[in-house]
Design a protein that fits this description.
By secondary structure, this protein is of the alpha/beta class. Among the domains are: 2-163 and 247-258, Rossmann fold (3-Layer(aba) Sandwich), CATH 3.40.50; 287-485, Ribonuclease H-like superfamily/Ribonuclease H (Nucleotidyltransferase, domain 5, 2-Layer Sandwich). The chain is 50% helix and 12% strand. It contains 36 helices and 24 strands. β22 and β23 form a beta hairpin. The two termini are 55 Å apart. 41% of the residues are buried.
């Protein structure tokens, strides 16, 4: 940040705005005597950051006067809406003023004027002297001061505002901000604006007419209610403009050149900080600048830039047998990582950041190879516990650097996931810190910016990067202890974490690094055909509609289908628009050919963008492999998710989907072996339901859907038609997901009455299933969660809701989650067991894909029969169900042939 400004600029700090912001935004800290300290802590922390960023600059802190100002004399109602200052805030003002003076900073208050006016006056003086000025504030009114010599800086948010930033935020340049504020008004200051005129309208008017005076001269040209409001506001708009204008000619006894920063009075600061119990802040002003601090903890965050200090840290970790890691590393398409920095933490007292490849030239940086060589013995040590959030990435990164992590893993994301899989906010460090430690971590975007102005984290200055990265490592160390204790209190044993999730992390890291070989040619050919198909469908849609329109615009589709073609509009979206969803279009295919064309178009464009383009962009050019990412913590039931790219939803039954799967191939001398559980969720339901009829059907090795059809349609098993089987299959799987008669009717194309009758006959034939569902809902209502066979809990916050829609939805989850979750747990166990068996047998075989109930292996051709038998045996013995698990396997040169 420092390098963005000409040094040394004059720093003018809006003390009042930060005082209020600190009071309302920072935690409500008190010392042990009950004295409020939160606002003081927030302002002092911000000032210390400014002093660190601008060591040679004069820094002046300005506060509002407690007495009425000239604006009150102009307008009696000025700020009349504001409530009295809370006592908890007023008690902090005098101590804060004293602390600022002890910091050696000039403090300025002028009766009759606001801080804005004093800042405007000083900024004008500085500009006249040829000095650059930074106004540290978050007050939007200050935008009127910005010019080529004056910049606004919101220190707490880390956001700078120059002229172009003001235009981007407000839609008008700084010289029009006063007119802008007059038009929109200010409710906090009780400055009246034009009713119904907001920021967009105000900026549009000013850009069209130039200024407020021109708008008023042309007021009769404005139509509608807003025009009436403008004309009704003519009398008081000049007053609003005067109230919004910062006075830049305050008669001060001193000039800007008279203000200089003095030395800190460490003795007096020590007294104040001890009284306020700011132990970390005290260390910050008395410790060399190579250490950084965070007010959330008493820990010291250290920048490590030399080999001797790194050696001290390695010994510290070795002694404590604990290493919390946070990597700043980027993965390429080949699952190799480029490291920019590493944060380390071994205890609650200190954390360190090792900058390796930042652009900041103010600090020496360590050599990557040297750092890795020093860390290698720690990773090889089976007694050193490795702590982090998403350790799969850490394992993969170190593997790409030639290091295998041997020690036990404590992954805070997985611990949280086992504790409450669907926890609000997810399982990243920031969310966990908020929920479990009641702390707010540094926002990464506050350092990098966002949108078009976002910078790579490697361009963040090293001191700021240290605070962020070291805080993450330190926070995860604290979280690991807290979450471990909660898990021990919540569960009788920790098998789910220690025997499933934790070892699975290592296996998935290997699967990701293995990748799956992909041939570009079939995908490119399909992409070309899809482009041609999409072009044909667009032309067909134009012909069917009799006009051109955008097939990507729901609004235009509505107009064509319902206004022009007068098709039935069966339902509306939540926003009141006529729905053009897939379900609606399917209901309309018999009325006109256009709905089917739109459906075909959507299918083709989704296939092209979601699969063809993403797959082609994800192939590593060196290995011709795709290395997808697997996420263990995204689905509440325990299922894995795949991303970058998502390989789990590639269609399996459509011709286009099969062609995509043909592109996934084995390497030379190898074949693909696919192994998947047959009807695993139905077998689990039969186990939970303990239904004799279902059990007998599975034990007789019957086609379960045909057997179900025979019962509910009262037809001999051998005479069941394909349509009967299809409907029975919809019922079997629909009921697992808690489908209602209405949903089933839509799914199989029948009436709700008939669908209800099917369900009644199903439950008559399989009464155990109905009993399971009712008992599961009862237990869920009592406990607030349901469990899988392995003890995974899926919490249901809406299960006792009075809102019927939310309650029924939670009941459907309650029915399905134990089944789907148990299937996921079995699959995870199988993945671990098969990996161990292949490793123990030293087979030339490796996992390359993990797709819900299916694992795909790349196996040497001469070993495939033996490996296939081993995989079937291991997978079928993974869980002890009352219904035997069945594994189907297939072999082929590509995925389509194998499955």
């Amino acid at each position: 940040m420092i390098s963005e400004y000409l040094r040394p600029p004059v720093i003018l700090v809006d003390g009042s705005i930060y005082l209020f912001r600190g009071f309302h935004g920072a935690p409500n800290f008190t010392n042990s005597k009950g004295r409020p300290t939160g606002a003081i802590r927030a302002v002092v922390s911000m000032l210390l950051r400014l002093l660190d960023d601008y060591p040679d600059s004069p820094v002046i802190v300005i506060f509002d006067s407690a007495k009425p100002t000239f604006r009150h004399a102009m307008y009696n109602e000025y700020k009349a809406n504001r409530p009295p200052m809370p006592e908890e805030l007023s008690l902090q003002i005098e101590p804060l003023h004293s602390v600022i003076k002890c910091m050696g900073l000039p403090l300025l208050i002028e009766d009759g004027y606001e801080a804005d006016d004093i800042i405007g006056t000083l900024a004008t003086q500085a500009t006249e002297l040829g000095l650059e000025t930074i106004v540290s504030t978050s007050d939007k009114d200050m935008a009127q001061l910005v010019n080529e010599h004056v910049t606004l800086l919101d220190t707490m948010a880390g956001k700078a505002f120059k002229r172009e930033d003001v235009v981007e935020k407000f839609g008008v340049p700084p010289e029009r901000i006063i007119d802008y504020l007059a038009l929109v008004g200010d409710t906090s200051d009780n400055i009246p604006g034009v009713p119904k005129v907001g920021p967009k309208t105000a900026s549009r008017w000013l850009n069209q007419y130039g200024d407020l005076a021109s708008i008023l001269r042309n007021r009769d040209h404005f139509t509608g209610k807003v025009g009436e409001n403008l004309r009704a506001s003519v009398e008081y708009l000049p007053l609003s403009r005067d109230l919004a204008t910062i006075k830049c000619e305050v008669p001060l006894n001193l000039n800007i050149s008279d203000f200089q920063r003095a030395e800190m009075d460490i003795e007096e600061l020590t007294k104040w900080f001890n009284e306020l119990e700011f132990r970390t802040l005290l260390r910050q002003v008395t410790t060399p600048s190579t250490a950084k601090f965070n007010e959330n903890t008493d820990a010291i965050f250290e920048i490590v830039t030399d080999p001797l200090t790194l050696d001290v840290w390695v010994n510290r970790i070795r002694e404590r047998k604990k290493l919390s890691l946070e990597l700043l590393a980027q993965r390429d398409l080949g699952a190799n990582y480029q490291c920019r920095g590493i944060a380390l933490c071994a205890d609650k007292e200190r954390a360190a950041y090792l900058p390796i490849d930042h652009t900041d030239e103010n600090f020496r940086q360590l050599d990557f190879v040297y750092v890795i060589d020093q860390l290698r013995p720690l990773m090889d040590d089976r007694e050193v516990e490795i702590i982090g959030n998403d350790l799969k990435q850490v394992i993969s990164a170190f593997a790409s650097w030639g290091i295998h992590i041997e020690g036990p893993l404590s992954d805070t994301a997985l611990m949280s996931y086992v504790l409450v899989s669907n926890a609000p906010g997810g399982h990243r460090t920031a969310s966990l810190a908020s929920r479990h430690l009641n702390m707010t971590t540094i926002d990464r975007l506050a350092l990098t910016g966002s949108g078009s102005k976002r910078i790579p984290f490697a361009q963040v200055e090293i001191p700021e990067a240290t605070c962020y990265m070291a805080e993450l490592a330190h926070t995860n160390l604290r979280l690991s202890e807290d979450l471990r204790q909660q898990l021990q209190e919540e569960f009788e044993d920790l098998d789910l974490y220690h025997r499933i999730e934790q070892p699975l992390t290592r296996v998935l890291a290997t699967v990701e690094r293995n990748g799956v070989r992909v041939s570009k040619a079939p995908i490119e050919k399909l992409g070309q055909e899809l482009d041609e198909r999409i072009e044909r469908l667009v032309k067909q849609a134009y012909d069917a509609a009799g006009e051109q329109f955008s097939l990507n615009s729901p609004k235009q589709i509505q107009e064509v289908l319902f206004d022009k073609l007068k098709l039935t509009s069966p339902r509306r979206t939540r926003s009141g628009m006529r729905s053009t969803s897939e379900d609606v279009l399917r209901e309309l295919v018999d009325e006109h050919k256009l709905p089917q064309i739109i459906l075909d178009y959507r299918t083709a464009t989704k296939l092209n963008s979601t699969y063809v383009e993403q797959l082609l962009n994800s192939i590593n050019s060196d290995t011709q492999r795709i290395h997808t990412w697997y996420d263990q913590t995204s689905a509440s039931t325990g299922r894995l998710a795949s991303s970058n790219p998502n390989l789990q939803n590639i269609p399996v039954r459509t011709p286009d989907g099969r062609r995509l799967r043909e592109a996934f191939i084995a390497g030379e001398g190898s074949v693909l072996l696919s192994a998947d559980y047959s009807q695993i969720e139905l077998r689990i339901m039969a186990h939970f339901a303990a239904d004799e009829s279902l059990r007998e059907a599975f034990e007789a090795d019957l086609d379960i859907h045909r057997a179900t059809a025979a019962e509910i349609f009262d037809t001999p098993y051998e005479e069941v038609s394909e349509s009967m089987r299809r409907d029975a299959k919809a019922i079997n799987f629909g009921l697992i997901y808690g489908m209602s008669a209405f949903g089933l009717a839509r799914n199989i194309g029948t009436s709700r009455t008939e669908a209800g009758a099917f369900i009644d006959r199903y439950f008559y034939q399989y009464p155990g299933v109905l009993s399971y569902m009712e008992e599961t809902k009862r237990v869920a209502r009592s406990a607030g969660y349901v469990e899988t066979l392995m003890g995974r809990r899926i919490h249901l916050p809406d299960i006792n809701q009075t809102d019927r829609v939310r309650r029924v939805s939670a009941e459907r989850v309650a029915i399905n989650a134990p089944i789907q979750g148990t299937a996921a747990d079995i699959m995870k166990r199988a993945t671990i067991a098969v990996d161990r068996a292949l490793t123990a047998g030293q087979y030339d075989a490796r996992m390359v894909l993990h797709i819900h109930d299916e694992i795909v292996f790349e196996v040497a051709e001469d070993q495939v029969q033996e490996v296939s038998g081993l995989v079937i045996e291991v997978m079928q013995q993974t869980a002890n169900l009352s219904i035997d698990l069945v594994v189907d396997t297939g072999v082929g040169k590509n995925w389509s042939e194998a499955h």
